[in-house]
Amino acid sequence: MTRISESEFARIVDGIIEDRETIIKHNPIGTEEEILLWMLLSCLTMYLNLTDIEMPCFNGKPDVKTYREAIVFVLQNRKSGNFDIENVLDRLSPGDRSLG
Hints:
The protein is mainly alpha-helical. The protein contains five helices and no strands.
């Protein structure tokens, strides 16, 4: 089972923040935060080599809360070390200064 460290998780989030304008431009459906969280979930799926069985399922149209919960669910048993997932996810929120 592939695991992820806090620094690697933060690096992926930083890359998404760095490329956010392009990501949003090419995925215009949803809010900015929804689009960025969708991209993060997609990146984590590949990074962690998740199988179809391990992938979260969505009922209806996912929103920010749904994506955040899915990411936390995916990372729960895949973290190497103990770190605050929510704290890193908060950097993708529009009010966060790191979105610059």
